[in-house]
Amino acid sequence: MIFVSLGTQDKPFKRLCDYLEHSDIDDEIIVQSGFTDYQSDKLKVFKYIEKADFERYLNEADYVICHAGVGTIVNCLKLNKKILTVPRLSKYGEHQNDHQLQIAEAYRQKGYILVMQDGEDFKEKFEELKKFQPKQFISNNEVFVNKLKNYIM
Description:
Elements: E1 2-5, H1 14-21, E2 29-32, E3 44-46, H2 51-60, E4 63-66, H3 70-78, E5 82-85, H4 99-109, E6 114-115, H5 122-131, H6 140-152
Parallel strand pairs: 1-2, 1-4, 2-3, 4-5, 5-6
């Protein structure tokens, strides 16, 4: 199963749904669409998903495809998920600026996620995701707590 999170930004993100809709992916695709109205026979689209169900879908997902929001990325990394981010872009009216490009690139450089850049082929990027072996995520919170423990003891 593939879980897709478009985030809760108050702007539509139809571009990512279109990639999925026109792909040859046969897996079940669950989409949390937020402010993106999208009708599909291929995708199971839910405007909002309750927290418990959201977490269940994340746990069950073989792959996660999402916008480049920090919260979504970190939640997926904690679950050791293979993540493909598709940053929302201002030129398509998906966000007010392109900060998601910087967020995605920072996590990509650390080996945690894959990033689909504007103009890349979705099919090729999804095939890359299948083979991708993400680096084990270590949160800054854990690093800080361990340093503090070592200092105190």
